[in-house]
C-alpha cells in the first residue's frame, strides 16, 4: 500500500499525531487522510472524545516515547504537542524548553531507524514582528521564550531529518476538550452578553485548525520538505479578527472594542506583526491558501459537528497567544 506521500508501506499506512487532545491535534484526526490508521498521543488522553486510538505518552519520559514509537511504527508523524501558552512559557522557561525542545529531540531520537515522514508544527512567533509578511527567507528573531523554544525545536528537527517538513503557522478553532482557544474565548464572551476587546496593534494571519490540518496533509502529499509558511492568504489585527468573527456569528457591530497590547499587561512581550507570506506553500499546492473570511465561515459551520462530540464545561481561558 502507499501512504499519503506516495511511499510504499507495509499494510495500512500509520499516521501518528502528537498533542492529539489539543486544538490542532484533534483537527488533524478529524481531517485525517482516508485509508490511514491514526494513532494519537497526549499526556492526559482519558477525557478526549476522539475517533482514533489515543495513548498516554509524556514526551518527557524517554523510555515511554521509545516504547510507544516501537508499538506504532508510524509511516507519517505530525508532531503537534507543545507547551503552547506564551505567558506560561515565559514564567516557566525550563519547562518550556524541556517540553518544546527536549520533547521534540526525544521523539526524533526514538524515530531513528524509522523511515517515516516527519512534520513539525511551528509558529509565526519565531519572528520579532517588526515587519510582517514574512517569507521563509527572513531570519527569525523571537521575542519570547515560547518563540525561542519553537525555533530551537525547528533547528533540532531539520538537523535530525533532512526530509522533515516544518510548518510555521497561526490558527484558531474548536477544541474537543473543555478549554477555549482564541476564537472560542471571543465567542463565549459575546454569547454571555459581555463585550470583547481586541488588540489593534497585533497582526496575524490565522487559519482555521481544520483548514491547516488539510493543508498539512496536502503538503505531505507534494513531498515538500524544509520550512514552509502555512497561514491565511490575508492578515488582520486581532481586533479586526474578533470583529469579523462577531459579524460571522450574527452579533451586531460595536460588541468588540479596540484596545492595545500595552493595555493588556501580558507577561511575555508580543511581536506586533507576524503575518506570514505563504506563497511558497501555495505554489507547491497549486492554489492560493484560504482567506480569513473562508476560515470564519467554516468555523461557523463546524461548531455543531465538533461540539456534538465534546464535553460540557470549560477548563479555562485560552493561552494568550
Ligand atoms: N494555537 C496556536 O495559535 C498556534 C500557533 C502556531 C503554532 N502552534 C503550534 O501548534 C501546535 C499545536 O498547538 P495547539 O494550540 O493545538 O496546542 P494545545 O491545544 O495547547 O495542545 C497541546 C497538546 O500538547 C500536549 N502536550 C503538552 N505537553 C506534553 C508532554 N509533555 N507530553 C506529551 N504531550 C504534551 C497536550 O496534551 P495534554 O493536554 O494531555 O497535556 C495537548 O494535546 C503546537 O506545537 C504549537 O506550538 C499553535
Structural notes for this entry:
Helices cover 37% and strands 16% of the residues. The chain is an alpha/beta fold and 321 residues long. The protein has a single domain, classed as Rossmann fold (3-Layer(aba) Sandwich). The strands form four sheets. Strands 3-2-1-4-5-6-11 form a seven-stranded parallel beta sheet, sandwiched between helices. Strands 7-10 form a two-stranded parallel ribbon. Helix 1 links the parallel strand 1 and strand 2. Helix 2 packs parallel to helix 4. The protein starts with 13 loop residues before the first strand and ends in a 13-residue tail after the last helix. The C terminus is likely disordered. NADP nicotinamide-adenine-dinucleotide phosphate (NAP) binds next to helix 1, helix 4 and strand 5.
Quick structural overview:
The chain is of the alpha/beta class and about 325 residues long. It is about 35% helix and about 15% strand.
End-to-end separation: 40 Å
Proportion of strand residues: 15-25%
Going by CATH, the architecture would be 3-Layer(aba) Sandwich
Structural class: alpha/beta
- Fourth CATH level, the homologous superfamily: NAD(P)-binding Rossmann-like Domain
Say which molecules are bound, naming each kind only once: NADP nicotinamide-adenine-dinucleotide phosphate
**Named CATH topology:** Rossmann fold
**Count the strands?**
13
Percentage of residues assigned to helices: 25-40%
N-to-C order of helices and strands: EHEEHEHHEHEEHEEEHEEHEHH
Total domains: 1
Amino acid at each position: 500500500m502507499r501512504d499519503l506521500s506516495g511511499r510504499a508501506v507495509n499494510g495500512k499506512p500509520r499516521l501518528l499525531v502528537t498533542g492529539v487532545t489539543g486544538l490542532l491535534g484533534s483537527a488533524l484526526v478529524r481531517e485525517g487522510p482516508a485509508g490511514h490508521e491514526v494513532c494519537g498521543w497526549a499526556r492526559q488522553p482519558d477525557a478526549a472524545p476522539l475517533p482514533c486510538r489515543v495513548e498516554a505518552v509524556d514526551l518527557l519520559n524517554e523510555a515511554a516515547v521509545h516504547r510507544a514509537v516501537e508499538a506504532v511504527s508510524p509511516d507519517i508523524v505530525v508532531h503537534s504537542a507543545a507547551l503552547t501558552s506564551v505567558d506560561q512559557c515565559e514564567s516557566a522557561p525550563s519547562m518550556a524548553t524541556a517540553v518544546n525542545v527536549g520533547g521534540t529531540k526525544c521523539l526524533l531520537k526514538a524515530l531513528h531507524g524509522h523511515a517515516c515522514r516527519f512534520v513539525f508544527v511551528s509558529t509565526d512567533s519565531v519572528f520579532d514582528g517588526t515587519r510582517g509578511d514574512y517569507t521563509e527567507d527572513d531570519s527569525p528573531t523571537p521575542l519570547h521564550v515560547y518563540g525561542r523554544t519553537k525555533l530551537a525545536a525547528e533547528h533540532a528537527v531539520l538537523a535530525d531529518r533532512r526530509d522533515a517538513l516544518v510548518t510555521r503557522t497561526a490558527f484558531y478553532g474548536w477544541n474537543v476538550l473543555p478549554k477555549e482557544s482564541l476564537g472560542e474565548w471571543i465567542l463565549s464572551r459575546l454569547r454571555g452578553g459581555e463585550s470583547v476587546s481586541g488588540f489593534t496593534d497585533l497582526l496575524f494571519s490565522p487559519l482555521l485548525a481544520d483548514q491547516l490540518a488539510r493543508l498539512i496533509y496536502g503538503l505531505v502529499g507534494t513531498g515538500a520538505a524544509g520550512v514552509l509558511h502555512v497561514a491565511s492568504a490575508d492578515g488582520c489585527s486581532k481586533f479586526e479578527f474578533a470583529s469579523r468573527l462577531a459579524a460571522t456569528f450574527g452579533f451586531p457591530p460595536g460588541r468588540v472594542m479596540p484596545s492595545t497590547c500595552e493595555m493588556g499587561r501580558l507577561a511575555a512581550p508580543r511581536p506586533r506583526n507576524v503575518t506570514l507570506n505563504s506563497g511558497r506553500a501555495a505554489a507547491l499546492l497549486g492554489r492560493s491558501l484560504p482567506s480569513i473570511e473562508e476560515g470564519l465561515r467554516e468555523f461557523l459551520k463546524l461548531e455543531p459537528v465538533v461540539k456534538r462530540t465534546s464535553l460540557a464545561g470549560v477548563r479555562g481561558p485560552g493561552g494568550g497567544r
